Amino acid sequence: MSEMPYPPSPTLDAFAALLDRFEKLHGFARLDEMGFGDFAAAPGDCVVLFAEDPARVPETWDVAVVLPEVLKGLGGRLRAGVLDMASARRLAPRYGFGTWPALVFLRDGGYVGVIEGMRDWAVYRREASAMLDKPVGRAPTLGVAVRAEGAAGTCH
Predict the structure, then answer these.
(1) Which of 72, 76, 66, 64 is nearest to 20 (CA)?
(2) HSE, side-chain direction, 13 A CA sphere, residue 7
(3) Residue 98 and residue 44: Cα distance in Å, rounded?
(4) Looking at the whole model, is its pTM more than 0.90?
(5) Burial class of residue 133 (count of CB atoms within 10 Å of its CB; 0-12, 13-18, 19+)
(6) CATH of 12-131, one of 3.40.30.10, 3.40.50.1220, 3.40.250.10, 3.40.50.300
(7) Which of 24, 31, 53, 134 could bridge to 35 as Cys pair (CB 3.0-4.6 Å)?
(8) Rounded Cα–Cα distance for residues 111 and 103 (Å)
(9) Rounded distance, CA 117 to CA 115, Å?
């Protein structure tokens, strides 16, 4: 029987060790809020894992483990980064996703799309590949309503 790639009850320390390993083996960038902007704005396509505490959201661990295989299947066309959890929580509203963890796809700093939560392997491969062909667009942010100057302040 092969050894499991992660402990049965992932801790933050174990998750950090996994990310350290991925940084060394796969070139994942470890990002905080400040580094995220530069990473996202660099030329080309990238994906950023918006991670949550794996003890609270175990799928975070699963998505992190699957991500290198997804990237390998795309022939190295994506740079990968992982946001620290505090930064991910602060930046999440910018991208409007509702399920953790999330893979946010960007190109030249612009929003391409998001894959939320854990998916079947075939779905990940299909959706991640589709992101490389999608145009940059507007993120579905959780924004503030805009109204014309002089318009009434209510809907009715």
Answers:
(1) 64
(2) 12
(3) 26
(4) no
(5) exposed
(6) 3.40.30.10
(7) 31
(8) 12
(9) 7
